[in-house]
Write a structure and sequence with these properties.
alpha+beta, five-stranded antiparallel sheet, 16% helix, globular
Length: 310
């Protein structure tokens, strides 16, 4: 078990004082049996007139800040500390009827899973469909866990990671054609592929812990990270990170889940001023870990400055 600390600072700068509208922040991790939040601090400069906390439709914790007055800079600093218990790859139980694909979700679960099975992007030439079906065995029913693992590893091996400064997500068909994308692009590609097979999938945003001995292997440290979860009967929502070829939650710190990536933006808000006033945004993320409360810290991904996340 690791005690992981994440420091995440987002800074917006302007040529002259501007007014800030409402800002929504999804920075507080989700508590779970394999991820227990120990402490969370949120500091905002200039100090908001009001901050309130709500749970969204997915159960994510959202801070909503409102401001009075103007400023040339807005800085949002989140520091979280949590117990993280990694699960081994493919070490999860699945209902007997779902161990082989294809299978059908139970009548009691299907109504709640339908929106997570629906496709979100057009695929008129069925390119994503064909890509997904190459992982199905031709000589009989496919092992479900092997199918999802093979898809995860294929994206890691066959596509090139490229950090993109633009906001939003790349169309999955474009990702396939370019054979490149960011972590959020890879997550959405696999989500759409899984959904094309009739399985429920959802988008996850959070952080990646990169131990010193895995720096050459892990991609996406030093910024927010994105991956996906697939729902499997009896196992529940299982995590898959196609950017790094991770099956399970190993090194993944879950903050928010959503049916669509647009519902899981870490920070969103408005400001009032001239378009030319905007000098840009920087993001700094540092993830460290200790084996227990008394151990010396192990440094993970160092902080970096960027205009957008992976």
């Amino acid at each position: 078990m690791l005690v992981i600390t994440v420091r995440h600072v987002t800074t917006y700068r302007y040529k002259q004082p501007v007014a800030f509208g409402e800002h929504r922040m999804m920075l507080r991790p989700r508590d779970s049996y394999n991820q227990k939040l120990l402490d969370a601090k949120l500091a905002i400069t200039p100090e908001p007139a009001d901050v309130r906390w709500v749970h969204d439709v997915f159960g994510n914790c959202v801070a909503i800040a409102r401001f009075a007055g103007r400023a040339e800079e807005l800085a949002i600093e989140s520091v979280i500390r949590l117990d993280h218990s990694p699960t081994n790859a493919l070490d999860f139980q699945i209902e007997e009827y779902a161990k082989r694909y294809p299978f059908t979700y139970g009548a009691d679960e299907m109504p709640d899973l339908l929106r997570s099975i629906e496709r979100q992007y057009l695929d008129s030439e069925r390119e994503v469909d064909r890509w997904a079906r190459q992982f199905l065995r031709q000589d009989g029913r496919t092992d479900t866990s092997e199918l999802l693992a093979a898809m995860t590893y294929a994206i890691r091996q066959d596509l090139t990671y490229v950090a993109r400064e633009e906001s939003g997500v790349q169309d999955p068909v474009k990702t396939l054609r370019l054979k490149s994308g960011s972590c959020r692009d890879f997550a959405v590609l696999m989500m759409e592929a899984v959904r094309s097979l009739g399985l429920a999938a959802r988008f996850v945003t959070g952080y990646l812990y990169v131990p010193e001995d895995r720096r050459s292997e892990r991609i996406g440290g030093g910024a927010t990270h994105a991956w996906l979860e697939v729902y499997l009967p009896a196992a529940g929502w299982i995590e898959f990170d196609p950017t790094n070829g991770i099956v399970g939650n190993h090194d993944l710190i879950r903050v928010a889940v959503a049916r669509d990536p647009r519902q899981a933006v870490p920070i969103s808000g408005t400001w009032t001023g001239f378009p030319s006033d905007n000098l840009g945004m920087t993001v700094e993320v540092e993830v460290t870990a200790v084996a227990d409360e008394n151990a010396a810290p192990k440094t993970g991904a160092k902080a970096r400055k960027s205009r957008a996340t992976g």
